[in-house]
Every structure is written in C-alpha cells, then in structure tokens.
Amino acid sequence: MAMASIARRKMTLISRCSGSLTSFSRTFASSSSDENDVVVIGGGPGGYVAAIKAAQLGLKTTCIEKRGTLGGTCLNVGCIPSKALLHSSHMYHEAKHTFANHGVKFSSVEVDLPAMMAQKDKAVSGLTKGVEGLFKKNKVNYVKGYGKFISPSEISVDTIEGGNIVVKGKHIIIATGSDIKSLPGVTIDEKRIVSSTGALALSEIPKKLVVIGGGYIGLEMGSVWARLGSEVTVVEFAPDIVPTMDGEVRKQFKRTLEKQKMKFMLTTKVVSVDTSSDGVKLTLEPAAGGDQSILEADVVLISAGRTPFTSELGLDKIGVETDKMGRIPVNERFATNVPGVYAIGDVIPGPMLAHKAEEDGVACAEFLAGKVGHVDYDLVPGVVYTHPEVASVGKTEEQVKALGIEYRVGKFPMLANSRAKTINDAEGLVKIIAEKETDKILGVHIMAPNAGELIHEAVLALQYGASSEDIARTCHAHPTMAEAVKEAAMATYDKAIHI
C-alpha cells in the first residue's frame, strides 16, 4: 500500500511538469554579468543546498550571500554553534554531577568559557569552509554581497569589497531565511538584552538569565547556561512550553527541566524592560491581566520566534507578493506569482527548520532541471536538543483527537530500556500513535538521550505508511535505545515485553 501511494504521488507530481527534460551546459563563465540558469539569493541551508543541487543537475548556478561566510543563520549563529555549546555544557554538567556515579572522581572541575567558545568557533569555521569547498567542487559561482532585485531576472549586488555588480539568471530562487523577532519597545544590544546570536557569545556566565519565550531556541539556550551555573527563568505568554509538542510528552519534559533547576513563569506577559541600572528589570503581569511584578536579571534572552527575511530585497519593485507575516506564497513547484522567481525555506509558509529548507532546496532545483521534486511537510521531524532530547514526527495525540480519528497509543519508558539503564541515563519515553482500524502510524514522540537520532526510524516508517506492527516485527540490536521504539510499537498493536 505504501509503495503504491508513493507511486501515485510521484505520478501526480510528474503530471504537473510541462515539457520534456532540458539539457544544460556545464560551462561556467567568470563574469557575473553572463546569464545563469539559476541564481540563488542566500547561502543558508536552503540556498546553498539548492545551488549545489542545481549545479549537480547541469545548471549554471550562482549563489549570492551577504554574510561573507556560507551556511546562513543555522551554521554561523544558530543550529551548529548552539549544539556545540549544548554538548560542551552537558559534558561539564556530567563531570560535575554524574561522573562519580560511574567511578570517575577528581578533586575539582571548572568552566573555561573562552576555551568552550573557541571550540564552538572552530566547529563553525570548519563547516563554513567546508561548504565553500563544496561550491568549488560543484562549480557554483559564489558572490559575496547583498542582493536586490532590479528585474525578475537581474540582481544588483553590493559586494562586501565595496563594489556593485549585476547578476543575471533565467530562474531566481529567494532563500534569504529568517531573522530574529524582538518585542515592541525592546532594543536588543547583544550584551544585556540578547538574541540567540548574543546568547551564543556571552563573555561570562550570567548569575541570573531570563529567557522570554518557551520554544525550541529559548529552552536550548536556557539549558546551556543553566548547566554552566546560571539561575534561569523562562517567561512564556502561552500556558505551555513548546505548544506544538505532544501534550503528555511536553508535561514530562517540563518536569525534567524543572529538575535541572530551570524555572517557568507561564501565561505571563512582559510589559516592559528597564536597562537603566547595571542589571535588567522586567515588569511582568498575568497574560489575562492582573497585578504586576518585577523580575531582575543580569541578561535577558529574547526568544520570541523568527520572522521571514523578505524586506529590502526589492520584491515590491518586481511585484512579488507577500502575506501579512512577510512570507512569500508559492505553488507546489516553489514558484511565486512572478514568472521566473521562486522561494524556499523560512521565507515561505511552513516550519522554520534548516532541514526543511534543505529539502525545499533540493526539490526546487529538481523542478528547475525538469525533474520531479517533493517535500512532505507533514513528515518534517522536530527536535529540541536539550538533555534529554525531545523529538517528534507526525501528529500529536491532541491533533488526532481533533480530527476524530479512532486510535491506539503505545508507550515505553526509558527506565525499562537496558541500554539507558546501563549508562544511568534513563529519563523519558517513546510514544507511538496509530490508527485503530489499520494500525497505520500517525505520530511518534520521543523523549530520551539521542532522541534526535532515534526519531528517523519513525520518519522512515511514516514516509512508507508503516504500521506499528511493522516496527515491532523488525529486529533491533540489543542493547540499544532504539529497542524502546520497538517496545513502544509492540505496546501499540499488542503488548510490550519488558514492562
């Protein structure tokens, strides 16, 4: 059934493609004024992947990036450096609190913050240079500068060196990503009031850190500094943290973070932020209104979401439409309302995730080369890289209920998993939701060490329309944490063995 479904989906997509496959030359001229087959504005995960894939498919390609280093927000000041600090801070926390349980003892342990930051920077530098190397390998022309439309096929680039060039292309892909979203009346100075960018480069460990926003980024960065010794308070307007997460898993996740001494003030509104003194004073009130209170901090992290970076690109000049949130509506081939102009990643509707942008980039390039591309936005996994990690794909139990679907739930606690017990890291669970009549998996939610790795078995299962029994009857190596996924699957259609 799954293979037939995928075949039908591919045939549908093929029917949307007009004309025959086109042959493209792989010769590359040195002048940026020569017309390209594809020009990509933005060198982040969506943009650089689109550029590489387009070049691999035989299209003469140029990528324009204003930052001067490739990889976008994700690689330079987002996903990659944050994961470096999450890992380093976790190692420190483990050394201080759990190594003795494993028989590893020493007299003292301390944080060398400059060394920790240097390790993070080294990882970022190596990866950005690696992407530039991939451009050279695949013959992608790389232009460093800020690009703006002057026509649907021409981009004016103010180069980093100070000059200006015009880059021409038959097809232009907008892949400019997203930017930080601040709060009204709050100025981010990246010192006391910081965005995620500033939170990745603090020169000292704040005694008190307030995080405004209980989403993925806020919890990850709050977790870093909490492990290193900060007193962290998360202020969230909504009644829950990570509102897109499965409710049962979210509650257990919040309890775990509270055990790690993170504090939460939910249904709370930030009225004002005062930086007139040495520290920061936040005036708060209940989201529904009521008495105000003061919360003091050394540093405040604004983590209230991100906004598409679509302004100052000259979109209005060529008539590209945007919605009220600044996103660019596109069709199934990533085409905007202006012929020859396309958009991918964070600038279009959908989850603002690096891996989603990469999939957009590949699919868009395939369409432009006359091939078939496809991204299933219902099967984009999400991961919170705290410890334990939380990962999910598909629908939550709340979403399944709202749809009126009869379903079964299978759960397995990590406390009953052999590998998790042997390493003394057994907090969390695996939860599988499947349709009652067919046993088809609808959603999988994991809270566990390395949940971000474990989730991909579930992503593949949902992609091919698997049942919980399909996973349960697949042999899993012992002892592994992946066995918890198998056991949860067994609990969904029958009964688990080890609980």
From TrEMBL:
Signal peptide: none annotated. Residues 380-489 form the Pyridine nucleotide-disulphide oxidoreductase dimerisation domain. InterPro entries: Class-I_Pyr_Nuc-Dis_Oxidored, FAD/NAD-bd_sf, FAD/NAD-binding_dom, FAD/NAD-linked_Rdtase_dimer_sf, Lipoamide_DH, Pyr_nuc-diS_OxRdtase, Pyr_nucl-diS_OxRdtase_dimer, Pyr_OxRdtase_I_AS. Transmembrane segments: none annotated. Its cofactor is FAD. Residues 37-361 form the FAD/NAD(P)-binding domain. FAD binds at residues 83, 147, 176-178, 346, 352-355. It holds the Pfam family Pyr_redox_dim. Its EC number is 1.8.1.4. GO terms for biological process: 2-oxoglutarate metabolic process. Binds 1 FAD per subunit. GO terms for molecular function: dihydrolipoyl dehydrogenase (NADH) activity; flavin adenine dinucleotide binding. SUPFAM superfamilies: FAD/NAD(P)-binding domain, FAD/NAD-linked reductases, dimerisation (C-terminal) domain. Belongs to the class-I pyridine nucleotide-disulfide oxidoreductase family. The active site is a redox-active disulfide bond. NCBIfam families: lipoamide_DH. This is Dihydrolipoyl dehydrogenase. It comes from Heracleum sosnowskyi.
